[in-house]
């Protein structure tokens, strides 16, 4: 049996569905992980997760566990990229900083119902439903 992996990208209407506090909490977690990765020169996801995961789970008990997991992945990726830029002399900052309004979702945090054209995103207060911006209409 031949299997293929397909990566899909879609825009969703999230206006007001996810509170700004959720984005700021994710930014805080990611900032702590980036600071730790930078201070300890950690580029390994496994090592960063081993050193920080349980402490962050205790600090943010209402946050679904996979948000910490994906933040560890994202922090390692950002730090590795920063090191490459720094080596080439292209990094403007002394240490990596994350400022964007972005949350990395994995298959535990995000599910997509293609029949109902609905996405489900896990948050600290339960799951929220979102619909894609440009839904194809049947004629």
Description:
The protein has 139 residues and is an alpha+beta fold. It has a domain at 20-105. The chain is built from 3 helices and 3 strands, in the order H-H-H-E-E-E. It has helices at 20-40, 45-59, 65-88; strands at residues 110-113, 118-123, 126-130. A 3-stranded antiparallel beta sheet has the order 1-2-3, with no helix packed on it. A hairpin with a 4-residue loop joins strand 1 and strand 2 (118-123). The model has no long low-confidence stretch (mean pLDDT 87).
SSE map:
Blueprint: H1 20-40, H2 45-59, H3 65-88, E1 110-113, E2 118-123, E3 126-130
Antiparallel strand pairs: 1-2, 2-3
Helix pairs in contact: 1-3, 2-3
Q: What characterizes the major β-sheet? A: 3 strands, antiparallel
Strand order of the largest sheet: 1-2-3
* Regions with little confidence, pLDDT below 50 for 5+ residues: none
Total of helices: 3
- Overall average pLDDT: 87
Strand content: 5-15%
State the end-to-end distance: 35 Å
Shape: globular
What's the helix-strand series? HHHEEE
Number of strands: 3
Structural class by secondary-structure content: alpha+beta
Helix content: 40-55%
From the alpha-carbon coordinates, what is the Rg to the nearest angstrom? 17 Å
Summary keywords:
single chain, 139 residues, alpha+beta, 3-stranded antiparallel sheet, 3 helices, 11% strand, globular
